[in-house]
């Protein structure tokens, strides 16, 4: 589960008529909720086998550092890194 937890995410902030994607740290509780939500949603999106097996496979992929939920975490971190210039709008 720890492999899927995001450390940072982007939140929209409206400043002077423009909306910026501002990177913010993710609190531990929210990181856990996001990780569970991502794992379950990607397990549901796979078809052709029982939900228990899909969930087990997604958890095993997360443990091995691969799979859709890991990609989602990496994409979230990339988005935060790309918008790092707007970090000073955090408040």
Automatic annotation (TrEMBL):
Pfam families: Ribosomal_S7. GO terms for molecular function: rRNA binding; structural constituent of ribosome. One of its GO terms (cellular component) is small ribosomal subunit. InterPro entries: Ribosomal_uS7 (IPR000235), Ribosomal_uS7_bac/org-type (IPR005717), Ribosomal_uS7_dom (IPR023798), Ribosomal_uS7_dom_sf (IPR036823). The keyword rRNA-binding applies. GO terms for biological process: translation. The keyword Cell inner membrane does not apply. Residues 1-84 form the Small ribosomal subunit protein uS7 domain. SUPFAM superfamilies: Ribosomal protein S7. Keywords: Ribonucleoprotein, Ribosomal protein, RNA-binding, rRNA-binding. Belongs to the universal ribosomal protein uS7 family. This is 30S ribosomal protein S7. It comes from bioreactor metagenome.
